[in-house]
Design brief:
The protein is mainly beta and 294 residues long. It has two domains: 172 residues, no CATH class; 84 residues, no CATH class. It contains three helices and 15 strands. It starts with a helix and ends with a strand.
Length: 294
Amino acid sequence: MAKKMFVVVCAAALALSLGACGGGQPGGAATPSGGTQGQQAIPATDGPGQDDSIKIDEIDWTVEPTIENGTRRVTLAYTNNSKYAVINIDMQFTQREDVTDEQRSVFDEVYEGDFAPTVEPSEFYVDGENAHYTKPGESAEPSLCTLAYTGKILTMDQYELMEPSYIGIEYLGGDGKVYLEYYDFLNDNYSIDIDHTKEVVDWPDSELGQLAPVIEKKDAVVIHDDEDDRSYVYVYGPTEDDFAPYVEQCKSAGFSNVETDSDTWFEASNDEGYTIEVVYRDYYDALCIAVETA
């Protein structure tokens, strides 16, 4: 597999929660107006997976300007005050009903230069995703918010025309499953996307998955996905310091024909012709592992 493609697949799959591998409308699960479509709500239960397992006031989110590499950017951060580990949150902000055309002059700059958007100023909205893995009581580092339909940097003047429309919260239920819960700010209701529910595994039991050494990390959250000739393992919870020790495990397991060995990326094959690629994605606090046949 080409290296660039592996990174793209890894990022897309780790962002599997809300389709966050690109700008614009996230994952097709929600519309810019804040209404949801295609998701199936399930009846409330007494355990994880009910449609309000995490109350909205348990996610203490903030949108603030941050200086990054000398540039002022708008970022989303949050503290997880729920009893569940959160894998990802994704928020959409739409323009308030009382916003005037005069106020929308803050969008004039996005039409300047090449590749100007084709939508009207009234159609702009803001996406904010924070995919850092946070245990109960932890705070996630800030992540960039984006202005949909543009490749421009979002400004606070533009953000201040917005109000929260919905939030998607991907969380570990504690029952061996990962759930995706939505809260609709505009209609004040919760729902669970049951099509998104995924099983957490101790480690893959498939033939290819078993070729990858087991992560020696307590409380790691492992999700597994198999294709015909490839096995993906996504491990949430490791830090960048866990990358090098895991690479050594891979080498000891026979993946000693090294092609790439950097601080966050390892690729090698074994004598039987199987290849392994390991990428640490600090944006997700996760290791992405792929084992492939010859």
